[in-house]
Batch of 2 targets.
Target 1
Amino acid sequence: ESIVPGELHDPAMRAASAVPEPGAVTIVVPTFNESANIRELLRRITESVPPRLPCEVVFVDDSTDDTPDVIRDAARDCPYPVTVLHRESPVGGLGGAVVEGIRAATSDWIVVMDGDLQHPPSLVPELVAAGERAPAGLVVASRYIEGGSREGLAGGYRVAVSRGATWLTKTLFPRRLRGISDPMSGFFAIRRSAVTADVLKPLGYKILLEMAVRARPRQVTEVPFVFQDRFAGESKSSAQEGIRFLRHLAGLRTASPAARMVVFGLIGATGFLPNLAALWALTTAGTHYLPAEIIANQFGVAWNFLLIEHLCFRDRRQHRHWWDRAGRFALLANADLVLRIPLIALLVGRFGMDALTATALALVTTFVLRFAGTEALVYLP
Ligand code: GDD
Ligand code: MN
């Protein structure tokens, strides 16, 4: 991707802030067509951040309108250095933009906030102060602790979706999100030494979640805030963003081999549904049950393949064509079936095991082999 750094309001000040000062803060603001909010945002930041707190503002912009020009223009009236990184070919959406901003930040503290004033700039100094006090690596501005609320989340529908998403996320990552009541918040402060941007694989809106799960900052603290109404314009979120969020969750949840194996097994267990359905259809249509078994098994395999592709190995599909992956996957799945019976026979005949133990052992063995085979032969080069 190409990044065009914008002009700095005051290069001398920017140079001065290039050495991280304790307590200095870089405010990172992702923007997508927010021209009507920029002036007010910079005005309110100026009003809120005391002059003694060294501050710079980095906009990471994916706009298709004149937002970058508006930022450069408004920067002239701002006492802090203001940078615009305009991304010509945006990757990762909002989260990708935030990570670019974190990479560009030069201060000890980075505060990430939206550009539409739903996050009150008056809270910026408080977030940093809370982090210094704790001391913490991550300070989350939360709508869900005492003193916080989500006034700006208009409509029962959005509130319900937000609640459901928060619940699902907290359930999927109970350990990593301990102490974070609002993992969906887009307003937070991080100590630069607490995150390595290289471990992040941002995908869409939930960059705090990405950070908490993958970068795992050690000490976390929270500050309540009231989610405001948008100042101007409309939310850039969409149903597509919702799908992206589910993909993001799946990617995070299957990041470790152990977690992938569990998901792999759960998906495998659901394969009996299409398998039985196909068997029923085929035998009802008069097919002999033996060929019907074999054909029905392929329905289970296809179902498993689709789910596994999307829920287990989504970001590891680049090495082969989809038909190559499907073929290898089907081969492994059928080999599993063919291998199991002789293996059980061997365990019973040679090692004197009872049939039940032998079957259980064979099931576990072929499952582990199939998982390892899928990892190594389908999703690795
Ligand atoms: N650079 C960039 N690229 N910025 C983006 C993009 C993008 O693809 N999409 C959105 N933004 C910017 C917007 O311009 C705005 O400044 C900020 O990100 C938030 O976008 P909104 O569209 O206003 O988000 P929202 O209000 O629906 O959601 C916010 O609140 C949620 C909590 O309810 C975000 O902060 C979410 O992360 C948060 O979960
Ligand atoms: Mn918003």
Target 2
Amino acid sequence: ETTLMDKVVGLCKRRGFVYPGSEIYGGLANAWDFGPLGVELLKNLKEAWWKKFVTERIDMVGLDAAILMNPTTWEASGHVGSFSDPLMDCKKCKSRERADKLVENWQHDNGSDEQPANWAGEKTPPQDMLDFINAKNITCPQCGSLDWTLPKAFNLMFKTQQGVVEGEGKEIYLRPETAQGIFVNFKNIHTTSRKKIPFGIAQIGKAFRNEITPGNFVFRTREFEQMEIEYFCKPGTELEFHAFWKKFCMDWYLGLGVTPDNLRFRDHDQAELSHYSNATADIEYHYPFGWGELCGIASRTNYDLSQHMEYSSKDLQYFDEATREKYIPFVIEPSLGVQRSALVFLCDAYEEEEMKEGDTRVVLHLHNQLAPVKIAVLPLAKKIADNAKSVFDNLVRQLGLNMDFDVQGSIGKRYRRQDEAGTPYCVTFDYESLDDNAVTIRERDSMDQQRMKIEELVPFFREKFTY
Ligand code: ATP
């Protein structure tokens, strides 16, 4: 049975949204390349985010920090010490298994909160952990052996070398989140932008995590983009802003047409909260494989700025001129995944619509802002292609939108191709157009057609594509 996920993956490949990464070499596990339609979708969703979260708000400014950062950043942030998952190796076949549940159970049974991260390097976990594993009789899914090593912490950060001489370079990391670029620039931005608290800094960029269990298409990959905000506020006001940003993120997804029933909040309970967080909520989506995280909104107190103050010996406090108070700002962090959001928009938009007599059309009901191709201009016959092309040229120049021009195949087939790509409007130029200076506009979802003067197209579409 073909699942919705298989169908979406198939459509993505077939139409040029997403291809397996470096496919001609047999691919690279869980790496994906975004093709001509995919790159437009990503661009449109990032622009939609930037518009609503930054451009339209006077309390927000942007940043594009470097991916490679001084490695002390990651000591201060805690990523060197604890951004890790516990793994254990099968002694016989050397295959690797996650041990997070095991460690959790061991901690629970022993009333211990000792973390495998503390066992990194030379230190080994307590001997009774090994007895605990042996007692569980866990069979290796690869070879059936019962013989395991002790769980070891496996850091999720990608390491690389800065400097050209092998072995002499400085070891640095690819950033596992964009957020720390914001914190280390807090002072610079506060000084130069003259924003007063509460205000926020936004950033879109790549992040890298050596995930143990990537998968589910672009849901979890080792290289991905994040759209993150650090919203700085006065201590004591943070829970109010946490509630505000939760709703703001949810409204952003709803405003881009995601089915309300497929979205929900999930608040982290006390046990799940990071030690520095006093509130965290995820927005979850009902993916074809079940409910899962779409984005997170965390109240991180002043943990990050305090840590950077300690490690850099720089004063990152805020001076409130009105009240003459000095304090380390608290922060709310809404963090959204770009490709994970794209997956949600694609899954949510996908429909196989029953037409008459067992005929079905595949259609992507993408929001106008997200649609990779906004308008397709279709000449009814090759003979009038030049006339249609000048309509295309004029529209694309005045509207500045990504458009398609297609002469190949029957008009019905061309409509179906555009439906699959999620193109909201087709503009058909026929022989009559030569006389009446009008064209037929066909709407994707309703398939309704209307005749319109060519000179009316620009204001009509400008209105349709205002986000
Ligand atoms: P998860 O629990 O799914 O690993 P997380 O809680 O570690 O996610 P955050 O660190 O809060 O995730 O990252 C914020 C957002 O970045 C996530 O909600 C998701 O949209 C995106 N994201 C995180 N890791 C990945 C990944 N490996 N691939 C794609 N997107 C990711």
